[in-house]
Amino acid sequence: MATMVERVLLASPRGYCAGVERAVETVELALEHYGAPIYVRKQIVHNAHVVRELEERGAVFVESESEAPEGATIVFSAHGVAPAVYARADELKLNTIDATCPLVTKVHVQARRYAAAGYTVVLIGHEGHEEVVGTMGEAPESTVLVQSVEDAEALAVPPDAKLAYITQTTLSVDETGEIIAVLRRRFPEIYAPKKEDICYATSNRQWAVKELIGEIGLLLVIGSANSSNSNRLVEVARADGVPAYLIDDETEIDPSWLDGVRVVGVTSGASAPESLVSRVCDWFQALGVERIEPYRMVEEDVTFRLPIELRRELAIAEAQG
Predict the structure, then answer these.
(1) Contact (CB, 8 A) for 137 and 82
(2) Tell me: the pLDDT tens digits for 140-156?
(3) Of 19, 30, 87, 105, which alpha carbon lies 20 to 30 A from 153's?
């Protein structure tokens, strides 16, 4: 197939964030240490390729902790879980390893503290997303979900209510800013987190796309359909008038998207491994595109320690030789 594409520009930063790296490594090390099967509640991260590879190594993904046999080892995903999940896991005598991203844990802690202090907690996020389900489970009686500017405008609370807001970590920076502006206008006394909840990786990847936009005619975002932060990258490009598509891998590229496009941008969501970027680059090379290059280089140096339960187990095993 002939193509007009002359260059492919790779956004930076892209791909794995520290929380995803930690979660995937947790499952890999648990498989090495305990042996298969290791049960994982929900998808460890929202990427079909990652899940499939871990399944091949012996991970068993379940929708609920109650699907794991009594006494089994189960890993909780990077998106976090409600306290009720821990309670059920205890009843089943499960050996739990909590791979919740520390930045999500921070939001859970805020929800508990605000609720305990008598605040109505406004959670900005997407209904049904695992992170939101887990966060709301911290204080369900005190938490109200706001998904849009319209929701913020329509929010009704008693006149004497004390309000505080928190957010899902993988939202659009711009859209969330608009929602917060409405909440602050309507409720000037609303209490805000000391540091914004949208995670560094989500923000960085959105800014990288914004910087790339002026150079490209098309953006391909590598990520799975259920990945919130990947979908936000598509929206960022489209909001600026650049066609953008979410793809799981190179097999989902529609050649018709390239019609009339000379420069293609490629990025990947925070749960997409770099190997998928390499496969997309190979696809373009096979088309005859020779100029595939990074667009600026931004290094992220954030790292998170492994879950305490796993670190403890591995330290004991090492001490025993």
Answers:
(1) yes
(2) 999 999 999 999 999 99
(3) 105
Q: Indicate whether 237 pLDDT > 70.
A: yes
Candidates 20, 26, 49, 21; CA nearest to 39 is: 26
- Structurally, at CATH architecture level, domain 18-101 sits in 3-Layer(aba) Sandwich (3.40)
Report how far apart, in Å, the C-alpha atoms of 21 and of each of 50, 87, 100, 271, 293 are: 11, 27, 11, 8, 24
Q: How far apart are CA 34 and CA 315, in angstroms?
A: 14
Fold match between domain 7-16+200-294 and domain 103-186: yes
114: tokens are 């605000």
The pair of three-digit structure tokens given for residue 162, joined into one six-digit string: 């004390």
CA distance 43 to 63: 8
pLDDT in tens, 272-320: 999 999 999 999 999 999 999 999 888 899 999 999 999 999 999 999 8
CATH topology of domain 103-186: Cobalt-precorrin-4 Transmethylase; domain 1 (3.40.1010)
User: What residues are labeled active site?
Assistant: 131
Domain ranges of the chain: 7-16+200-294, 18-101, 103-186
DSSP string, 83-140: HHHHHHHHHTT-EEEE---HHHHHHHHHHHHHHHTTEEEEEES-TT-HHHHHHHTTST
| CATH number of the structural domain 7-16+200-294 | 3.40.1010.20
